[in-house]
Write a structure and sequence with these properties.
The protein is mostly beta strands. The protein has one domain: Beta-galactosidase, Chain A, domain 5, CATH 2.70.98. 10% of the residues lie in helices and 50% in strands. It has two helices and 21 strands. The strands form three sheets. The protein has a ten-stranded antiparallel sheet with strand order 7-1-2-3-4-5-12-19-18-15. Strands 6-8-9-10-21-17-16-13-14 form a nine-stranded antiparallel sheet, covered by helices on one side. It has a two-stranded antiparallel sheet with strand order 11-20. Strand 3 and strand 4 form a beta hairpin. Helix 1 packs antiparallel against helix 2.
């Protein structure tokens, strides 16, 4: 079975071999095997699963929170923001080397919910795009009133990019200037909007030494429509939301949210023309991975 899986993964991507290596306790790095170029770094415990994404020239592009967060607007769930403070319950490297590497993790927040992810990574050298295929699920383990958001995100430093863009439900691409700090610490935009079935949200137009650009693209949405959101000011986030953030929701014990999505990170672009071909190529690898799991 292991041999078959490895052969399938070899066929899944024509990219270079990668390694998911340990750089110390609670410290993992994704590197290109040949030249040791570092693509990503994570600390499953200390960073609660956050992943630092690096550009081909080694600059920090930003931080991905791959698995689900939860928030009750104006009623913080912890002494820190949102549901930061999740505790690592399990972490396992699935494939440590090859064209596609991967891991699985589980985090628990108090007696409120459990957030899980399976995370696979590969690299396309021709386009200099690294691809993260993430399957995440949140299970509610206690009735929770007044919840405003369940989401994943990619975060950059404020004013590090010029533009955020999203392909909306009607097929149009909306753009927003994120080159200046908003008047408040956290200004949220596009609430109430929905992504197209083939939609995505992206941030690009590097400024002030920013390393590159990123797009988040849902593939499967078992829990309903996906809402894009931009947080501008203090930090600049692009987010995929499972709930309409304008409303308050009662989440019930046993309720689940699930999402499959792609994170594409590459050298800086001045437009979004690169996203569709990158997604189409990544889809072929995803389908090969799916077949290997059957």
């Amino acid at each position: 079975m292991i041999t078959i899986l490895l052969l399938t993964l070899l066929a899944a991507s024509d990219g270079p071999p990668l390694e998911l290596v340990t750089a110390g306790v609670d410290d993992y790095r994704v590197v290109v095997a040949d030249d040791r170029k570092e693509l990503a770094a994570l600390r499953p415990d200390a960073w609660q699963g956050n992943v630092n994404i690096l550009s081909p020239n080694g600059r920090l592009v930003g931080v991905n929170w791959p698995h689900f967060l939860m928030n009750s607007e104006g009623r913080w769930l912890t002494d820190r923001v949102e549901s930061e403070g999740q505790q690592l319950a399990e972490f396992k490297v699935l494939v440590p080397s090859g064209p596609v590497v991967g891991y699985r993790g589980t985090w628990k927040f108090r007696d409120y919910f459990v957030s899980r992810e399976t995370h696979r990574i590969w690299y396309e050298p021709d386009s200099q795009v690294q691809v993260h295929f993430i399957q995440t699920e949140l299970e509610v383990i206690k009735d929770l009133p007044e919840i405003s958001a369940v989401w994943v995100e990619f975060m950059t430093q404020e004013n590090s990019c010029a533009t955020a863009a999203a392909k909306m439900k009607d097929g149009t691409v909306a753009t927003m200037d994120v080159s200046k700090t908003g008047p408040l610490a956290n200004m949220h935009y596009w609430d109430g909007q929905e992504l197209a079935r083939d939609g995505w949200i992206a941030i690009y137009g590097a400024r002030q030494g920013q390393g590159g650009c990123v797009a988040l693209a849902p593939r499967d949405r078992a829990s309903g429509p996906i809402h894009p959101r931009v947080n501008n000011g203090h930090v600049d986030n692009i987010e995929l939301h499972m709930l309409d953030a304008r409303e308050r929701h009662l989440l019930q014990t046993g309720q689940r949210f699930s999402l499959e999505y792609l994170l594409l990170a590459g050298s800086d672009r001045s437009d979004t023309d690169w996203i569709a071909p990158a997604l189409a190529k990544a889809a072929n690898t995803v389908e090969t991975l799916r077949k290997s799991e059957k």
